[in-house]
Amino acid sequence: MASYKAGAGLLIAALAIALFIGWMGLPGSIPATKINSLDWRVEDDGRLDYLISKPEFNLSEEKVDGNSSLITVRYASRGAEMAGLLRIPRFSKTVSDEENKKDGIPGIVLLPGATVTKEREQGLAKRLADLGYATITLDQRNLGAIDVNADLELFLEGSEPVEHMMVSDALSAAEILRSQLRIDPERIIYAGESNGARTAIIACALDERSKGVLAISTCGYGTDAAVAQSGIKDEDTIRFYRSIDPETYLPLISPRPLAMIQSENDTVIPYPLAERTFTLASQPKSLVSVGCRVHGYCQEMDEGIEKGLKGMFSYVSVSWFTRE
């Protein structure tokens, strides 16, 4: 095990990005239990695979909150009770009432960045509701924080890593969205910020019914290059790192669209790293750059978000699927 830990340290160092700063070793970790299950596995190439099914869930009474209605959702997922906020627009500015009556409201599984609660993510959720999109926003395990070394040890022991469970949680949330009468089950996408966007990319790749993914302020880990530089040889260690790298899953997104939005002045993830991940993706794809000096969503991203979502839900490959 000592050699595995050393290899993991080399890999993380080789990534040379501030992905884990302040996000590792947070208290309150949800324990993963060793399971032998046919609904979870990692393929030889590192691709995670889950059997997707609708979970048992409960909904609170619906409350009006401005231009949308808010419902608390609780559901069982991989041995834990997950909490989410379901926001459904009451009025639409960009999706016509006639379209919603005919096809139902399009829905988004919205995954916050690390340490961000579902409540703090409601600023973006409200913006999406104003555009005519329903969202289900999750309180992710460990609030989206990751402990790569702990997850690697779990994987090498044959147990299910927490990061894998987070993908399953998102897949289950999409099934809850699809079960709602006002929402079109065939117009569901995934969206996320920072680490939540990594999970969103993986979940979209595994959910063949989804129509695309919106990734804000994120990048992949560059695992293949890092492994080559670090000299790690253990196949299971490599397989684990590939399983949590969104770049592993980019080929599975196409022909559905990937829309990335990144600030050129991001304070956590440098723009060139997002650009590198973008170059690895297949068409249709878009990368929109903005100038705000924050990590995560800012109002300067609104135009790119609106264009990206309209392109996904219209099922048409139009000119926005290019580098901007």
How would you characterize the overall build of this protein?
The chain has 324 residues and is an alpha/beta fold. Helix content is 35%, strand content 22%. Strands 3, 4, 5, 6, 7, 8, 9, 10, 11 and 12 form a ten-stranded mixed beta sheet that branches. Helix 10 (271-280) links the parallel strand 11 (258-263) and strand 12. It starts with a helix and ends in a 10-residue tail after the last helix. Mean pLDDT is 86; it is low at 1-36 and 316-324.
Shape: globular
Number of helices: 11
What helical percentage do the residues reach? 25-40%
Total DSSP E strands: 12
Largest sheet: 10 strands, mixed
Task: Tell me what portion of residues adopts beta-strand conformation.
Answer: 15-25%
User: What structural class do the secondary elements suggest?
Assistant: alpha/beta
Distance between the termini: 46 Å
In short:
The protein is α/β, with parallel strands linked by helices. The chain has helices at 2-15, 97-103, 122-130, 148-156, 162-178, 195-206, 223-230, 235-243, 250-253, 271-280, 302-314; strands spanning 40-42, 48-50, 57-59, 63-65, 68-77, 80-89, 105-111, 134-138, 183-193, 213-216, 258-263, 285-290.
Protein topology:
Elements: H1 2-15, E1 40-42, E2 48-50, E3 57-59, E4 63-65, E5 68-77, E6 80-89, H2 97-103, E7 105-111, H3 122-130, E8 134-138, H4 148-156, H5 162-178, E9 183-193, H6 195-206, E10 213-216, H7 223-230, H8 235-243, H9 250-253, E11 258-263, H10 271-280, E12 285-290, H11 302-314
Parallel strand pairs: 7-8, 7-9, 9-10, 10-11, 11-12
Antiparallel strand pairs: 1-2, 3-5, 4-5, 5-6, 6-8
Helix pairs in contact: 1-4, 1-7, 5-6
